Amino acid sequence: MKSRQTHTVCLEQAGRLMTAAFRPAVQRPQLLRRAARPLSVPSPIQSRPRAGRRGYASVPAADLLFGQPVHETHPHILKAGELTPGITAQEYYDRRCALAAALPPDSAAVLQSDFFYLTGFNEPEAVAVLRKTGPDPGDCVFALLVRPKDPRAEQWSGPWSGVDAARDVFNADEAGDIASIGSLLPSLLRGVRTVYTNSEVDVPPPPPPPSSALAAARSIKALLDEAGVARVHPLAPVVAQQRSIKSTAEIANMRQAGRLSGRALTNAMRRPWTREKDLAAFLDYAFHQDGGDGIAYVPVVAGGPRGRLVHYVLNNAALNADEMVLVDAGGEYGTYITDITRTWPIGGRFSAAQRDLYEAVLRVQRSSVSLCRAAGGLSLDQIHRITSDGLRKELTKLGFSFGYSFSGSSDGLSELFPHHVGHYVGLDVHDTPSVPRHIALQVGHCVTIEPGIYVPDDARWPDHFRGMAIRIEDSICVGDENPHILTTEAVKEVVDIEALREV
Please, where in the chain does CATH 3.40.350.10 lie? Predict the structure, then answer.
């Protein structure tokens, strides 16, 4: 086994002295290459220990502890220069610059929601401030307020990164103790006229005795009032537009999530499951394989008529060989998720009625996926209407008759297909919900296409289809002329599904 190289370092300064090793290679303007300037309130900033007080020891580089993986401690997860899998420090810097460029002069963003997207910092009890300082790209100052290192607390709760790492690893220009936000935030916002933020952020309680500043200021809103900020606007709409267009690196992570998840679902189809929970457990395990980060959301594993419950997550019933199982499940890779739904016969072969209804939904799904291209100029809402028309035509061929519905609409299709055809996907399963679905799809948008038919046990519908539930869903990246399907490894053609049991 190859031995680890050790470095003689000051225990009190281990994080700072490893700066060269841990700082990602970011080509930044001079503004961000300067030495970190102390904030105007000196007490919360860790001062450098005097040389005469240093205590030296031999500390392996890989033994420095952080609250999340970094390249030096987790080279099997992160490449040099990456803050999170597949996403470099440069990309996080570019995201902050893009946000600052979208803000008006004399403004700042106080980040709590969308915090990770703009920083790569994935720890609780932290607040970031992005202050616009001029009109040019890169004219911004990034401050990060985090928990300071506390060896005794970390012995119980696990490590966190600390103030030095906020500068040296996460490239904050200014860093401080989150417990001192009551005094630091007004200082950071001096001269700022407009602040963009999201929901109120609770200030962590101070150690006893509480300072008067923290006792009085229990939320970001209260602190902004104290700082005399004239205008406060929601941040989410500004960030959401930027976040909805995925970069090449983001798409690569989503493709890998789709690849791993699709293989897991295809492997699940090979087995004759008898219980929903066994199938759910298999997927949970499979989504951790080959570098996956695990399950992205609570899955739907619904046998037979339970598939009609769109968000059924009990996953505890028996599976019958003559029924189908509807599985809505996806894994995560590099913090990005995929969203897939497949429906297949538990016994391995479709009955005639199951095949007819399944192929009707599949034809519509394939057609709707083909519309996810920027050149077509369509929105998700328009694709939804086209999908609804396609389902109505396919079902009519199968003997469904549409007229007045119990819900009061003029068409019963909304009872068979009660949800939207798709949503945006990315860091979250329902990503950027503030981005409307009526805007035209653009290159880099990532969406789902998931038509479904859920037939109740109702005399209005053909008897041999009653109780069936079929949904087919893929995650799609919008291209200019063609869609890019991120989840192709999950088979969906009838012949391919049935062939899995014949091998």
Answer: 20-45+66-242
Going by C-alpha positions, the residue among 143, 113, 43, 166 that lies closest to residue 427 is 113
Task: Judge whether 187 and 50 are in contact, CB under 8 Å.
Answer: no
Q: Burial letters for 274-312: b for 16+ Cβ neighbours within 10 Å, e otherwise?
A: eebeebbebbeebbbeeebbebbbebbbbbbbbbbeeeb
Burial class of residue 76 (count of CB atoms within 10 Å of its CB; 0-12, 13-18, 19+):
exposed
Q: Which two tokens stand for residue 274?
A: 């008898």
In this prediction the pTM is 0.85
In 3D space, the residue among 450, 457, 467, 472 whose CA is nearest the CA of residue 320 turns out to be 467
pLDDT for residue 62 = 54
Compute the C-alpha angle 139/15/61, nearest 5°: 125
What pLDDT does residue 228 have?
79
Whole-number pLDDT of residue 468: 99
According to CATH, what is the number of the domain 245-499?
3.90.230.10
Domain with CATH 3.90.230.10 in the chain: 245-499
Sequential DSSP letters for 301-365: EEEGGGGGSTT-----SB--TTSEEEEE--BEETTEE---EEEEETTSS--HHHHHHHHHHHHHH
- The pLDDT value recorded for residue 63 is 63
User: What is the model's pLDDT at position 290?
Assistant: 87
How high is the mean pLDDT of the chain? 86
Give me the CATH code for the 20-45+66-242 domain, please: 3.40.350.10
Task: Inform me whether the pLDDT recorded for 434 exceeds 60.
Answer: yes
- The sign of the torsion formed by the CA atoms of 394, 400, 401, 404 equals negative
Residue 458 neighbours by CB distance under 10 Å: 12
